[in-house]
Structures are given as C-alpha cells and as structure tokens.
C-alpha cells in the first residue's frame, strides 16, 4: 500500500541469457505494462512489470544505474542486485525517449533520497561521526525489506562493486545489438502482421460486395443508355411532329379566318333578311342562312378539335423533353458513381 505508480508504458521485456551473456531471452510473447513505482515507506524507486502472476521486472533504481539506448526502439540497463541486464523494446522512438527521460528523473530522485537518508543517519547516530581528515564510506539502503538494518559499504565492498561494474560493462559490450534489434522488430512485426491479416480479410469480403454492386451499376447504366437512345429517337420523331404541328397551326389560322369571314357574311345576310323578305326571297334566304349556320357550326367544331390536338401535342412534347432531361441527369449520376467505384476497386486491388 506504500507504493504508488508514477509512470507506465507498454514494451516487450527481455533479459540477458545468464549462460551466454550474449543473447536476449524474451520474457513474454506480447508487450507488457512497465511502470515506475515509488515506495514511500522506504523512500526507494523501482521498475516493476508483471506477467500473469509473476514479476518479470523488479528492479530498484540506484544513482549509479544508467539506461542506454541501443537502437531507435530499444533500451537496456544493468541491475547488479538482480545480477542481470533488462532490455525493453518499444513500439516507437517517442515511447523510448519518454521512458529514458523518466529513468533519468527517477535516478536523480533516488540520489536525493539517498543523501537525505544519509544525513538523517549521521544526525541520529553521533557515535558514527568521523573526523574530517578520514574518508567517509558511501552509505546505501537495503531495499529487501523494511525490517533489515541499514548497512555501510566498506572499502572492500567498493572494490567488489567496481569489479561487478566492469563485469557488467563487459557483458553489455559483448551483447549483440543486432539481435536485440531483430527481437524487438520481430515482436513489433508480429503485431503489425496480425492487423494486416485482419484488414486483408475484411478487404476481401468487401471486394465481393463491391463487385456485385459494380455489376448492378453497370446493368442499370446500360438500361439508362437504352432509355436515352429511345428518348432521343422519340425526340427525332418529335421534330417531325413539330412540323406537323406547324402545319396544323397554319390550318387552324386559316380556319379561324374562314370562320370570321363566314360570321361577317352571316351578319350581312341577317341585315339583308328584312329586305329579302320584302322582295319575296324569304324562303331561299332562310334556307341559305340555315346552311351557313350549319357550316359555321361544323367549322367551329373542327376548330375546337384542332386546338385540342395542338394542346395535346404541346403537352406530349414538354413531357418528352422533361423525361429526356431527367434520364440524362440520372445517367450522369450513375456514370459518376461507377467511376468512383472503379477507382476505389483499383486502389483496393493495388493495396492487396
């Protein structure tokens, strides 16, 4: 309960092979969570990574530790207490830089915590005070448990620690940097390969659907082309119909003039009716008048039929023009959708 996480990231964890001291051994098949923890009860910083129920990394950070970047996505540090070297493979160079910066900050915090603990020990134990001309050994704090006593490192321990440092440096120098990079890249490529396989399956499933849709669009486009051809043919027929309509209009005008002339003649005959009655030609005039009125009624009926036919022809022509324009607009939209679908299919084929 005394430890609190201060930074976490995801990385592939490796440990140096204790037999060869040259090869890396992956601690897990997948990336694990690696966290910095601060133990407030003992004032120590640790790097911890847990795989399942097992602690893969449990490294206490000391001021003499160094985190080394061996590639753009891989870094390592040596832990003399665990007698091993840890390696981390990250997904990006940015994650590696963040972990390295945090390592430097935590190492500095560990140094400050050690100095404070050393000052506290000297103040609480005056019998351990040494004159200024004598060499004061550097104190360290055991991180194995809160119940252990605080120990001071002697000169022989310093020599042993220096020897251990040289041995670890030699072990790091003998490590294969290429193998480290290959291991990290291998796990990264495995993750990318799984994502690509899933995307490929999804794309293949989409290709069949797009092919069916493309075939449907092609059939619909062909039907629209036939419809446009029919409408164009009807438009050609409409041009001849327009000529007939012009002739019909001319005939209609002639009939209107004729009806007007007959009306004038009827009015004139009506005006002369009284005079004709006086002259004894009443019966003949009346018969002629009746014939003229019947002729006039026939002409008016022909005029109405001609006007109705003309109106229907004009309405048919407008309807045909509207259908042609609508079909052409639909065909343009379908051709544009077909072009986009072909481009998408081409890109998909190229990516596959």
Strand fraction? 15-25%
> What does the overall shape look like?
rod-shaped
Q: Kindly provide the radius of gyration, computed on alpha-carbon positions and rounded to a whole number of angstroms.
A: 52 Å
Name the structural class: alpha+beta
Mean of all residue-level pLDDT scores: 77
**Tally of individual helices:** 5
How would you sum up the major sheet? 8 strands, antiparallel
Q: What's the order of the H and E elements? A: EEEEEEEEHEEHHHH
User: Helical residue percent?
Assistant: 55-70%
What is the end-to-end distance? 52 Å
Poorly predicted spans: 126-160, 173-181
Number of E-type strands = 10
Structure at a glance:
The protein has helices at residues 93-124, 155-174, 177-271, 273-278, 282-351, and strands spanning 3-16, 24-26, 32-39, 44-51, 54-60, 68-69, 74-79, 84-89, 139-140, 151-152.
Walkthrough of the structure:
The chain is rod-shaped, with a radius of gyration of 52 Å. The strands form two sheets. Strands 1, 2, 3, 4, 5, 6, 7 and 8 form an eight-stranded antiparallel β-sheet that branches. A two-stranded antiparallel ribbon has the order 9-10. By secondary structure, the chain is of the alpha+beta class. Helices cover 63% and strands 16% of the residues. The two termini are 52 Å apart. A hairpin with a 4-residue loop joins strand 3 (32-39) and strand 4.
